[in-house]
Amino acid sequence: GSAVQKRNSEHMKQRIILHLDMDSFYASVEMQADPRLRNKPVVIGADPKRGRGVVSTCSYEARAFGIRSAMPVSQAFVLCPHAVYLSPDYPLYSKVSAEVMTIIRSYGFRFQQVSIDEAFLDVSPLGSFCEAATLAEQIQATIEKNLGLTCSVGIGHSKLVAKIASDFKKPAGLTVVEPAGTQDFLAPLPVRKIPGIGKKTELALFDLGIRTIGGLAAYDIGKLVTEFGRGAAALHETALGIDGSEVEEHMDTRSISREITFDTDTDDPGLITTTMDTLAEEVYTGLVQEDLSFKTLTIKVRYQGFITRTRARSFYHYTSKKESLRTCAHSLLREMMEDRKVRLLGIRLSSFEKQDARQMTLGL
């Protein structure tokens, strides 16, 4: 095994991964489009006067009032009634996102877009973290000059470390974590900073007395196995910053999905319905961006007590109609509603076909 470990650590040494995350993307795009909004608390989501729906995102000025994404808009309104409340303009965000991605892609490194406002670059060919930092500053400057938007960048030897680092100093931050400094960087951070660790895992770790990533890394692996079973090894590796996954461009998008975890569990039917509308809009935007039609739609609902259910429906024909997508999502949601509070809603589109292929076959 030691030869494999040695080879792995060699590979780790050579890898330099950059993660770029746009700062409060929707709100920043709106401020760029309308300069009067600058330096104001801006909340993107439903209209609080109508009282339904959740916050999609908000500006840093709004965060200062305690407003967070996935919080009911009515609650945000209580915290900051004088904020500017805007409905999301997905076509605009999609257009700006494409411009951002074109800039990042233009540097010629292996590229992977992971959401409308974040992407990875494998900049290992640069050969040094110092060079990678220079490149990051160049990308940040280009995006700001061309689009008037700021982004935060993290650089590390794995996607995991780069992603945690990009969130470290926001907005407009640049955080470089060299392999030798990985442990020192991760150790003091709360376990919740590990992507994929949600409330449930966090509470389970708290029960073991583990609050920081360092605490998790130092914890006896045998005891972790007792608590988490098969997931223990992966969890432990994450705490050490080990993540072998590659930066890969998805030419064949296998699915487009979005989910929202509510700030507090809810059984408000209006809030649940408008949140599903928001998710439908967001996956529809992804569909348009990739120029795809889809055949299968899956809804995911997680109830209080972490009971998770999914339900899928497939259409007879590929479709890219927003109305079909919405109607199907809502009908599945109605079938799944129980007498229980909802913690998370998700929607996923899968089995795709390129739009132009369909137009040729159907002569549309």
Question: How would you describe this protein?
Answer:
The strands form 3 sheets. The chain has a 5-stranded mixed beta sheet with strand order 5-6-1-7-8. A 4-stranded antiparallel beta sheet has the order 9-12-10-11. Strands 3-2-4 form a 3-stranded mixed beta sheet. The longest helix has 22 residues. It has 15 helices and 12 strands. With 364 residues, it is of the alpha+beta class.
The end-to-end span amounts to: 58 Å
Order of strands side by side in the largest beta sheet?
5-6-1-7-8
Radius of gyration: 21 Å
**Count of DSSP H/I helices:** 15
Uncertain regions spanning at least 5 consecutive residues: 358-364
The portion of residues assigned to helices is 40-55%
How many β-strands, per DSSP? 12
Describe the largest sheet.
5 strands, mixed
Quickly give the structural class.
alpha+beta
Q: Please tell me the overall pLDDT.
A: 88
Helix/strand order, N-terminal first: HEHEEHHEHEEHEHEHHHHHEHEEHEH
Large-scale geometry? globular
Percent strand equals 15-25%
Descriptive keywords:
single chain; alpha+beta; five-stranded mixed beta sheet; four-stranded antiparallel beta sheet; 12 strands; globular; disordered C terminus
